[in-house]
Design a protein that fits this description.
Blueprint: H1 3-19, E1 40-47, H2 84-88, E2 96-101, H3 124-133, E3 149-154, H4 157-165, H5 172-188, E4 193-197, H6 206-209, H7 213-240, E5 245-249, H8 252-260, H9 290-303
Parallel strand pairs: 1-2, 1-3, 3-4, 4-5
Length: about 300
């Protein structure tokens, strides 16, 4: 078992033990559910462990009392508490915003391009199938429209690191093709507002910071290559699809803000880990804790300020 697979397995076991004890974020974190406007908006999210809240499309649907549907806020996350989608629909919502989050820990963009670190983990392609079989069958599942809906995705981490542990480079061009293909499916179904979150500076995670200089450089090169190609393709996607509005959310900014000033966020240093997600910047050696997630949510909200947030 690779070091990466071991880390994910440990994280999954820790999640199970923490789920029963997890509670909503404290009042000081400004996670009020009270909408400031009356209209309802819909947020469709796809991703991996940096994004997952444990949503099951066959379970309880999002509502005003629990905007992530199931499980209860903050969900089953890899952060120790709220992660960035949870913060979006609590701390940064400007209306009733219902989150349908199909992200699953360990997911890659396409399992046929890069296999996930375990069996049964749905890729972006497979998460889209789940979306089409539930939310996509509007309006019976959710009464969303082109105007009140925003779709976002955060992928690439497992694709890049999965290949890194195999001493290979990921098939970036093919990954980008499949990624944009899923956005094209969403567009064909009526979605018009899109964003993606760039892969963060993985070389600054405790896991990769401990690798050789050559290893860190290899990871950085692949991260930059993927982010650059995907941003360029997203711009083409917008220009080629009438009415489409897109945004690239650069995750490096919130990550670097916290890493450069750990004390501001209650952390002793930039590498410590805390399974409660409160006293360190990291939940484990790969996953950020709540402070970075809140900064990331703020970056997403800023990209759509005045429209969705």
């Amino acid at each position: 078992m690779t070091q990466f697979n071991k880390a994910l397995s440990i994280a999954a076991v820790a999640l199970a033990s923490l789920a029963a004890a997890r509670v909503a974020a404290p009042e000081t974190e400004s996670t009020s559910l009270a909408p400031r406007f009356l209209e309802t908006k819909y947020l469709f999210i796809f991703g991996d462990s940096y994004t997952a809240t444990g949503f099951n499309p066959s379970g309880t649907k999002p509502s005003s009392s629990n905007p992530i549907g199931n499980p209860a806020l903050p969900g089953s996350t890899f952060s120790g508490g709220y992660d960035w989608p949870g913060y979006l629909v609590t701390a940064f919502n400007t209306s009733q915003t219902l989150l349908y989050n199909f992200a699953v820990g360990g997911a890659t963009i396409d399992s046929n391009l890069v296999a996930p670190p375990g069996n049964g983990i749905p890729s972006f392609v497979e998460q889209m199938g789940q979306w089409e079989n539930s939310v996509g069958s509007k309006p019976s599942y959710a009464p969303w429209t082109s105007d009140n809906t925003l779709a976002g995705a955060f992928f690439g981490i497992n694709d890049i690191l999965g290949k890194f542990w195999d001493n290979q480079d990921p098939p970036v061009s093919q990954m980008v093709d499949r990624f944009i293909g899923q956005f094209q499916t969403l567009y064909a179904s009526g979605v018009r507002n899109f964003f993606f979150v760039t892969v963060p500076p993985l070389d600054k995670t405790p896991l990769i910071a401990g690798q050789s200089a050559a290893g860190r450089t290899r990871v950085m090169t692949n991260v930059n290559n993927f982010n650059t190609q995907l941003a360029a393709r997203l711009a083409s996607f917008e220009s080629q699809n009438s009415g489409a509005k897109t945004a690239v959310v650069t995750s490096a900014d919130p990550f670097n803000t916290a890493i450069s000033n750990p004390g501001v966020y209650g952390a002793a240093d930039a590498t410590c880990e805390d399974k409660k997600g409160e006293r360190c910047l990291w939940w484990d050696n790969l996953h950020p804790a709540t402070a970075i997630h809140k900064l990331l949510a703020e970056a997403v909200a800023s990209a759509f300020e005045g429209t969705f947030f």
